[in-house]
Specification:
Elements (H helix, E strand, L loop, with lengths): L2 H11 L2 H9 L9 H16 L3 H7 L4 H13 L3 H9 L3 H13 L3 H11 L4 H11 L7
Helix pairs in contact: 1-2, 2-3, 3-5, 4-5, 5-7, 6-7, 7-8, 7-9, 8-9
Length: about 140
Amino acid sequence: MEWFEQVRAAEQRRDWDAAIALVSAHAECHSIDPCRHNNHLWHMDLLVSAERFPELTERALTDVHARRRLNTALRERGMEAALRDRAEGGDRGALYALVRLLCETSRIREAERAVQDLGPDHQYAHQLVAGFRSPSSGAR
């Protein structure tokens, strides 16, 4: 059985430790080898599946893929406070994820306030809120 088949089998068993150990041996951030780079992204997904948020948070300090995956996972889980903390620390991606979360849960005014408090100069954050406000967006 190839290593990636072993990873898939470990994923099926929800044996995250085994899956993470196997894939991380074949992963490299920003590798010129697209397979190693894709394995790095797979590794980040496995860390989310394992809910290893402290490890992802540590990696997010230097790894853009970990940062993006962490912010997405926090948004998907509705972890508003964690996103707010990250946005307060200067993570623009966390601000955008927070704004999306607030807008997706019909809290447009809170999203506007978050943008004003955490990123008044971030044009993209303003655009996100405006997109949820526009009639063509299907916003509430």
